[in-house]
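I'll show an entry:

:::
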Amino acid sequence: MSAIGGIVVLTDRWQARRPLVEIVAAAVAGGVRAVLLREKDLPRAERAALAADLRPILAEAGGTLIVAGPDPLDGDAVHLPAAGPYPAPRCRLVGRSCHDEAELLRLTREDYATLSPVFPSRSKPGYGPPLRPDGLASLIRRSPVPVLALGGVETPDRVTACVEAGAAGVAVLGAIMRATDPAEIVASLTSAYVKAVSSKPPESWHGRT
């Protein structure tokens, strides 16, 4: 299992029904322990201030704020795009977005990768057809690091399918950003994740014994 797993929340203030600080607090109350801060269109100072507001919410629960891009905004966890930079900067936790086998095989010192889109998604357009669980499972078998399933993972059944395909966790954006009650959605998805993990036979994160 990777240093990151379970339900991971990605932020998008343009889709959010409430301020991001409120949504993240509700998600943490529902069981989330990792949040990926996107908002890359913000000036650095504003984005750093937002990170400073979110980080203590996660830290109080033993969680981690991950920042999209190579600049950790005074933290120690980043998530990089498939396009680069390579090699990854040295941080306590480094992830990278991947969409196919070629991108997975470029990974070096990353701790985890996201694979997307697994299902049709309004939040992840433009990355080709959905992988679906079978395609996800095939790529996970080739991945040198644990994988988070991303894209359209908005229901407990889809969380279960991703875990059964070998995902270490799932990354969720729209279902939580648009939720009236983010804590309730997170609790539902987390319950499905825990149940799916507990029902799998003992094995490593990638399905190899």
